[in-house]
């Protein structure tokens, strides 16, 4: 059996450590790091540190220059649609602002995606959404929030795919992080609201029957209800 360290795990660990340090403000905009410093502080090789820096560069969070170092970039330069960045901002950043921003994004995207899905969804996608709703019912009644979350994510992922729009489909990771963040940070009731599940069923049925207006209306109701719940949680 190999005793070599799991490079993938080390990479992920360092990426999370640096990413959350930047998001939390521990490393503010303008702060300069070096590969040697990162490597020494975390006890990892320069090659691992270099790969992590490249990922952060692709996210717009740092800029690396020879003889200057690795400079943390201001938040307006960040790729705010990156699912990892969304997760970090929910975990250690301004959670309220991030969730409100994402809620507004979903309101502009998912109802339109639902209408397109009613026009374009294939039978397999319709079955997947119906099955996801059934699973939400079962797991909602039992209070199994982790399994409920997986069914909820499957529903929304399939809906975005069924829209047939590649731009909408690319936002799946964004929506998944919103749903995950709400669950993992205790912003979901211990027993999901049956009315919310019923709205998901309305969306699925409207898509299956090719009723674009009904699909859009029901999806907008889902987003609006989630926004009200979010406001209630944030405002106590």
From TrEMBL:
Residue stretches spanning the membrane: none
PROSITE patterns, alphabetized: HTH_GNTR (PS50949)
GO molecular function: DNA binding; DNA-binding transcription factor activity
InterPro entries assigned: GntR_C, TF_FadR/GntR_C, Tscrpt_reg_HTH_GntR, WH-like_DNA-bd_sf, WH_DNA-bd_sf
UniProt keywords, alphabetically: DNA-binding, Transcription, Transcription regulation
UniProt entry tagged with the keyword Mitochondrion: no
Domain of life of the organism encoding this protein: Bacteria
Keyword Zinc among UniProt keywords: no
Residue intervals of the HTH gntR-type domain: 8-75
Pfam families: FCD, GntR
Cross-referenced PANTHER family: GNTR FAMILY REGULATORY PROTEIN (PTHR43537:SF44), TRANSCRIPTIONAL REGULATOR, GNTR FAMILY (PTHR43537)
Name of the protein this chain belongs to: GntR family transcriptional regulator
Organism: Mycolicibacterium elephantis
């Amino acid at each position: 059996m190999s005793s070599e360290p799991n490079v993938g795990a080390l990479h992920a660990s360092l990426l999370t450590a640096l990413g959350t340090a930047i998001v939390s403000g521990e490393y503010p905009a303008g702060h300069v790091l070096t590969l040697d410093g990162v490597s020494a502080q975390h006890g990892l090789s320069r090659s691992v540190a270099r790969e992590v820096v490249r990922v952060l560069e692709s996210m717009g969070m740092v800029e690396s220059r020879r003889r200057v170092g690795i400079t943390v970039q201001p938040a307006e330069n960040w790729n705010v649609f990156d699912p990892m960045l969304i997760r970090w901002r929910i975990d250690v950043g301004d959670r309220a602002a991030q969730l409100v921003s994402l809620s507004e994004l979903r309101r502009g995207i998912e109802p339109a995606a639902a209408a397109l899905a009613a026009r374009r969804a294939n039978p397999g996608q319709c079955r997947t959404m119906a099955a996801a709703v059934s699973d939400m019912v079962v797991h909602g009644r039992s209070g199994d929030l982790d399994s409920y979350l997986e069914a909820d994510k499957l529903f929304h992922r399939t809906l975005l795919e069924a829209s047939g729009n590649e731009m909408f489909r690319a936002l799946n990771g964004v929506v998944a992080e919103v749903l995950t963040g709400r669950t993992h940070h205790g912003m979901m009731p211990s027993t999901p609201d049956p009315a919310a599940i019923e709205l998901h069923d309305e969306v699925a049925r409207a898509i299956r029957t090719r009723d674009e207006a009904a699909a859009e209306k029901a999806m907008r109701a889902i987003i609006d209800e989630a926004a009200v719940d979010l406001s209630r949680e944030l405002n106590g």
